[in-house]
Write a structure and sequence with these properties.
Blueprint: H1 35-46, H2 51-54, H3 80-84, H4 87-108, H5 114-123, H6 131-142, H7 147-171, H8 175-203, H9 208-228, H10 232-237, H11 242-251, H12 253-261, H13 266-273, H14 278-287, H15 297-340
Helix pairs in contact: 1-8, 4-5, 6-7, 6-9, 7-8, 7-9, 8-13, 8-15, 9-14
């Protein structure tokens, strides 16, 4: 069975071709300014990992509650819509919600293909790419200016994805989800750092008009990304009252907090690369995320590394304890045999 057979609605087979334009840029200056980029490259080589070995795929996942969250985290919780749903209907909604969420993680991070195995094996259902994400991907890649793909992909799309991964990593009650997200974040943090380093010096040299163009791109992209995680497609697929459901999402205190936390990586990064004009700050104030400008990206990325390394240590300790238990059982069994003799 191919992935196409598992989509909730048909998607075009083959590839989605996005035309790209731009110049190849070469520099004959090999000064020390490249050290930070080379350091990230070295980390990329050192931290390569095998998803088949590093992740314990035997861990179980409840497909009706993929992340293992309390139902209070559901934006429909407490509404008339939720109260009228049978348990079977709630379980169906939970499966679609998990499928939709991890499908969007997959579509936005096609380099992290262990999401494919997770969605395929543990949920068994895919959702098409969210249209807000598809629009930003296309606009980022089609622009002829070399920096726009970096700004759209490494700063906006991956910056928001990194924050979303972190939220689910920290809140999830499922061991496999926590492992998967911790290890993917270890990689994605380097991608965001690369975009930040690549753009910071370049943007310091922009003209006023060029900076305004980039800031307008950031504002539009951030509004698209804010709306990306509302899950409208779930309500449409399940033939639920879309308007009422979206109102529940918009008015949910939990979802408002979630939306705000999604910008913990983007806002300080945008500020750091120098796209911090009045229009950008006004947009972030409108979204209620301006205070995230005070965030320490370096500290967050160090924390991501530590959590992934701790996950390795925890799994190793569990495997060692299991082996010791097997040895103890074998010794006990051997002792029993000698006593009988």
């Amino acid at each position: 069975m191919t992935s196409y057979d598992l989509y909730t609605s048909p998607v075009p087979e083959g590839t989605w071709n996005v035309p790209m334009a731009g110049d190849a840029r070469f520099s004959w200056e090999y000064h020390d300014g490249r050290d930070r980029l080379l350091s990230l490259y070295q980390k990329g080589k050192d931290k390569q990992w095998d998803a088949g070995k590093r992740i314990d795929w035997d861990l179980e996942v409840d497909p009706t509650n993929v992340a293992g969250l309390p139902e209070e985290f559901n934006p429909l919780f407490g509404s008339d819509i939720w109260d009228k749903m049978s348990q079977d209907r709630r379980d169906e909604f939970g499966r679609h919600q998990g499928s939709w969420l991890f499908s969007q993680f997959l579509h936005g991070e096609q380099g992290a293909l262990n999401y494919t195995r997770f969605v395929h094996e543990k949920i068994g259902m895919y959702y098409p790419v969210n249209q807000d994400l598809a629009k930003l991907l296309a606009e980022s890649l089609r622009d002829s200016r070399w920096d726009l793909p970096y700004l759209g992909m490494q700063v906006l799309i991956e910056g928001l994805a990194l924050a979303a991964f972190g939220l689910y990593r920290d809140m999830s009650g499922n061991a496999l989800v926590k492992q998967l997200l911790a290890y993917v974040m270890q990689d994605e943090a380097r991608h965001v750092a690369f975009g930040r380093l690549a753009l910071k010096d370049y943007y310091a040299e922009l003209t006023g008009a060029e900076r305004v163009e980039r800031e307008e791109f950031v504002v539009e992209g951030c509004y698209l990304m804010r709306d990306r995680f509302k899950g409208r497609e779930i309500f449409e697929t399940l033939d639920m009252p879309v308007g009422e459901c979206m109102a529940c999402v918009d008015n949910s205190d939990m979802f408002k907090l979630y939306q705000s936390l999604l910008f913990t990586r983007i806002v300080p990064c945008v500020r750091d690369v120098g796209l911090w004009g009045d229009k950008v700050q006004a947009a972030y104030a409108d979204m209620g995320v301006l205070d995230h400008a005070k965030g320490d990206l370096e500290a967050l990325m160090r924390q991501d590394e530590q959590i992934a390394e701790q996950a390795d240590q925890d799994r190793y300790a569990q495997e060692l304890a299991a082996r010791r238990h097997e040895v103890d059982q074998a010794i006990a069994l051997g002792s029993g045999d000698r006593d009988l003799g």
